[in-house]
Amino acid sequence: MAAPKRGRSASAQSKPGRSLALILIAIVALTGGMFLSGNKTPRLGIDLAGGTSITLKAKADQGSAVNKANMDTAVDIMNRRVNGLGVSEAEVQTQGTDNIIVNIPKGTNSKEAQQQVGTTAKLYFRPVLASEPSGGAAQSPSPSATPGGSSSPQPSTSPSASSSPKEKASSSSTASPTASATSQGRAVTDALKAGSTPTPSTSASGSTKPSSTPSATPSASSSAGTAAAKLQAQYAALDCSKPAERAKVGGASKPGEPTVACGQIRKVWYKYVLGPAAVDGTEVKKAQAVFDTQGASGWQVQMTFSNTGAKKFADITGQLAKNQSPQNEFGIVLDGEVVSSPYVQGAITGGQAEISGSFTQQDAQSLANMLSYGALPLSFQEQSVTTVTAALGGEQLHAGLLAGAIGLALVVIYLVAYYRGLSVVAMASLLVSAILTYVIMSLLGPAIGFALNLPAVCGAIVAIGITADSFIVYFERIRDEIREGRSLRPAVERAWPRARRTILVSDFVSFLAAAVLFIVTVGKVQGFAFTLGLTTLLDVVVVFLFTKPLMTLLARRKFFANGHKWSGLDPKSLGAKPPLRRTRRPAGPATGSVDPKEA
């Protein structure tokens, strides 16, 4: 039974080339995949590639408290907003109980992501009661305005893609500013007193204007008139071209109350009087930016409402379609600012609508992103914005690589000085491990969004010591066997089981520590833990499939097998014991035998 067992062992030992061929095939396949994917270098994080780091402080909103649930919801929404813009490497994480840190790498759509990430996104659809250009030369548009002039095309909303843009503020171009303001003032007052969306009626002159039949009591009517007068005065004094005045309006109003607001259409600021919110932004189930390839509408935003939102939207659009401009428009109000005010051609039923007009691709995608991902449960105040330039990131990367090179050089010097010829095995194994680490990191960038940051570089540097430690364990086991008087080939095979157990236990402890660190930490520390865990797994692969088979092959070479003094396995320098030999006693006479001489 013993002979077949030795035969199987010898057969396994005589074919180390299989393991070397396997790891070579893996390296070629992974490298080929890296070049085919077009990602020849690992993705760099914000501290190496440059970007922006934003610190946001949460504030309690109406009916919302700063707690873990709301903070986690805010982080999730911010992540989805940024990912919706194609910035998949951004980091959004909580810090403490009321802070959120957002790291946005420099690259495609990073500016848009920075603008949107902390926007509260309280979104409402409000009917427009009055509007006009505000501030600068745009306040008095020419009667002969064209789409290329100072007037701005206004988006339209319709159930189909056949809508066409119209000119903004066309009504104000046919009357004096005073007359226009007086007419709009009466419309605003009538609508506010009615407490509802204006409905059309015909005056004595034949023109259509909003009117209503107030059913309120005299005291309520007086209160509404006072509120209307106050709102009208605020509207008349508002200059939306000034940032300080824009910050004072819109955001503080309640959904059920009329308000004044500002909005920018094609770089021209407009001021609005808006009625109570008719539809909440949370009623939008889905929104996406699409390009109209069949018509002349260009970029559009297609919306799908929930069942409740579909009914509300059908009601409000049905009422607005009966009015004249600008009261046939509804304002899409985001955090108190009108981001779009499309006019309505008819009642929109079925729960689907599209907004078309003067959108660029960026405008359409930005609006669709806000409509899709909804409002944050809390308000956030920007505490700090730190910009990391690419030059600074390059300096940090250079410093990290220099530290790694110094560490690697020290390890190589130690191996050459102490292990001599065996250092060739160690350096070849380190090279294989480095190639696998680099290729896998390059592939993981587009696959899972892995970005190499400075802590991850530190993890890779630490891994050099972990990998070298595995070689040292194996080499010392081989030397122990040689000291016991065995030749190299048996020593290599007998040392492997003992070294294998030690290496596996050591790497398991390192991997466990990396896994725990990855789970309990956030942000950049996770990069360190991930890299440490990855390189630990690769250490096991390299030792089993490369180091051990290579050592088996070298044990057959005379340089190592004969124990050359530069091989690192010289029996004399290791203090090897002489081979154990049995001593035989001379055979004595058998008991009870008779000496022939005596006989």
Brief summary of the model shown:
The protein is α+β, with helices and mostly antiparallel strands and 599 residues long.
Mean pLDDT: 75
How many β strands by DSSP? 19
Tally of helical runs: 17
Gap from first CA to last CA: 50 Å
Instruction: Give, in spatial order, the strands making up the sheet with the most strands.
Output: 4-11-10-16-15
The rough form would be described as: elongated
Please give the largest β-sheet.
5 strands, mixed, barrel
Question: What is the radius of gyration computed over CA atoms, rounded to a whole number of angstroms?
Answer: 39 Å
- Beta-strand fraction estimate: 15-25%
Structural class: alpha+beta
| Overall helicity | 40-55%
Structure description:
- The chain has 17 helices and 19 strands.
- The strands form 5 sheets. Strands 4-11-10-16-15 form a 5-stranded mixed barrel, surrounded by 4 helices. It has a 5-stranded mixed sheet with strand order 13-14-18-6-17. A 4-stranded antiparallel sheet has the order 2-3-1-19.
- It has 599 residues and is an alpha+beta fold.
- The model is unreliable at 1-12, 137-183 and 194-216 (pLDDT under 50).
- Helix 11 runs parallel beside helix 13 (454-483).
- Helix content is 48%, strand content 17%.
- The radius of gyration is 39 Å and the shape is elongated.
